[in-house]
Design a protein that fits this description.
Radius of gyration: 17 Å
Number of helices: 1
Distance between the termini: 38 Å
Order of helices and strands: HEEEEEEEEEEEEEE
Oligomer: single chain
Helix content: under 10%
C-alpha cells in the first residue's frame, strides 16, 4: 500500500502513533503540561517534584497529598491526565484528578487504585464530606506495574462525567462552584510502613 494511503488508513482506524481515544475532546486547549519543568503553575512543596516529564508525589507511609493548579481557572472543562504505576513490588497506591476546586481545602476528587478500584469524593473546608463512589471495581483500570492509565473528568454545569482509559464509569450531579474553579492532582500511599511515589506524565484541559 502506498505510504499516504497507509497513513490515512491508520488515522481512520484511530491507531496513529500517540493517538489516545480517551483524550480530552474540547476544541480550545486551556492548559497543557507535559511536566518537563516546574513552570506550569503548580504549588511546589518538599514532597512534590516536577521535571523531566514527570509530576511526582513523594509520599511517606499512610499519607495523601493534593495540589491544585495556581495559575489557571475554568468554568466548564474536559480534564485529562496520564498516571503511571511504579515498576516492581508496590503498595496500594491512589492517583487522583481534582476538579471543582475552590482552594486547597475544598474540591472534588476522582481517583483510581492500583488494585483495580476507583472512587469519587468531596472535601469541604479541609474535611471529607463523604464518598460518592467508594472502592468501585473497574476492569478499565490497568493494574500491572509500569502501566499507564488515563483519567478524565468532563464537567458541564453541575454535572460531571468520569472516564478511565476511555471507558465511562460514572456520571454525577453536584454543586459546582458559582465562580471559576481550579483543577489539580493527588496521590495516596496506603502502606503504613513504606514510602511511595505516585507519578503523572501529562495533563491537558480543554473546553
Amino acid at each position: 500500500m502506498p505510504r499516504p494511503l497507509l497513513l490515512l488508513a491508520i488515522l481512520i482506524l484511530g491507531v496513529a502513533p500517540g493517538f489516545r481515544a480517551s483524550a480530552c475532546e474540547g476544541q480550545e486547549v486551556i492548559f497543557e503540561d507535559k511536566f518537563q519543568d516546574d513552570a506550569g503553575g503548580w504549588s511546589l512543596k518538599d514532597n512534590i517534584e516536577v521535571k523531566d516529564g514527570a509530576f511526582t508525589f513523594k509520599l511517606p507511609p499512610d499519607d495523601m497529598s493534593s495540589n491544585l493548579n495556581v495559575t489557571f481557572t475554568v468554568k466548564d472543562a474536559d480534564i485529562c491526565t496520564d498516571t503511571v504505576w511504579p515498576d516492581g513490588d508496590q503498595p496500594v497506591l491512589g492517583a487522583g484528578l481534582l476538579f471543582w476546586g475552590e482552594d486547597n481545602r475544598t474540591y472534588f476528587q476522582f481517583g483510581i487504585l492500583n488494585n483495580g478500584k476507583f472512587w469519587i469524593a468531596r472535601k469541604q473546608d479541609g474535611k471529607w464530606l463523604g464518598t460518592i463512589a467508594a472502592n468501585v471495581d473497574s476492569t478499565a483500570i490497568k493494574t500491572l506495574p509500569g502501566a499507564t492509565n488515563t483519567l478524565r473528568v468532563k464537567t458541564n454545569g453541575n454535572s460531571a462525567t468520569f472516564y478511565i482509559n476511555g471507558t465511562k464509569v460514572r456520571e454525577v450531579r453536584g454543586q459546582a462552584p458559582k465562580s471559576a474553579w481550579r483543577f489539580g492532582l493527588s496521590g495516596d500511599n496506603f502502606d503504613k510502613q513504606k514510602e511511595a511515589k505516585v507519578v503523572f506524565k501529562s495533563m491537558k484541559v480543554t473546553n
